[in-house]
């Protein structure tokens, strides 16, 4: 596949030529706040867009969401929890408006916070390195959940989950991890998804996207999974990007462009 070194924002900005308005959403990082602050932020942003749709000449019935890596994780969680009040929050107000979206573009987003390390291919990264990246107290997933003190970490939570140790004082963190994992939130009402994941991703295992795809299929949800077998965690190549733009333009019924 051809190389494409543009940033993800530059890639997503291509939708503009199809008559689609692009909005870049900011949210609190795990260094600023623990989950679920992040999903509250993005839900609040979508409600704001819908509340001001007329002002910005946006069709409130045709809103899609996209992201790469951590932001793709939030895009997936946003979409799989459409109209689920447990995930809504009140950030930004406009609570009389829906935060639902009608399509999703996911570039190599995490889908299960508990299983990143064991799902990493041994041909790409050793189990020791994968555990250090994903299971340790200073791993991004551990920090996101606020379970990042010495002796804590995702690895501890996964063992509790595997043994179903609901009596542990840390079980609430296991539940938080499950609630924050999009693969467990898929329902037949989940909107269509475009999934792109490189075969040489050494940060987010491609198995995470395979599992999401399988959950979507099991629930009868339309999806398109595209993989550049040589792509890393990042640039997916021109062909993948062009396929994504055509897919999202079609899902939003935007006019096609030959440019």
From TrEMBL:
Domain BD-FAE-like, residue spans: 9-129, 175-216
Gene Ontology MF term list: hydrolase activity
Pfam families according to UniProt: BD-FAE
Keywords: Hydrolase
Highest taxon of source: Bacteria
Entries under SUPFAM superfamilies matching the protein: alpha/beta-Hydrolases
Annotated Gene3D superfamilies: alpha/beta hydrolase
InterPro entries referenced in this protein's UniProt entry, alphabetically: AB_hydrolase_fold, BD-FAE-like_dom, GDXG_lipolytic_enzyme
Chain coiled-coil ranges: none
Name of protein: BD-FAE-like domain-containing protein
